[in-house]
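Lab manual, section 2.4: Encoding a predicted structure.

Procedure: take the sequence of the chain (110 residues), apply the prediction step described in section 2.3, and record the output as structure tokens. A sample record is shown.
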Amino acid sequence: MTSAHPTPPPVGRNASVRIVDEDTRDDLAILMRPGGTASDAIRAAIRHMADAYRAAWDYGDVPDGTAPCIISVRYARPDGTPAPIPSSHPAHPQVREAATDRNTWPVRRV
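Recorded output:
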């Protein structure tokens, strides 16, 4: 049963993550490709998502405690410069769909 106010495990304690399907296993394999353990990859993913949630709440883009709809990720090249955003980049046609049907999260785009 999910708690209304879940709390993370204490520092130093293990958190359990069950690999429930091939998609989750494949996603974890992608995160491990640069090197490191499954735990390293999961910690990095948690940090990245927490940063996105924190920013959405701090900027007031979504109410505190509400999961934001993440529609984009910007990354840097290996030399640290931002990857270019082409002017012809489609304006995320799936955004309207994702924003109106939050019951389907996480949305997988292939």
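Check your result against the sample. Residues 18-71 form one domain.
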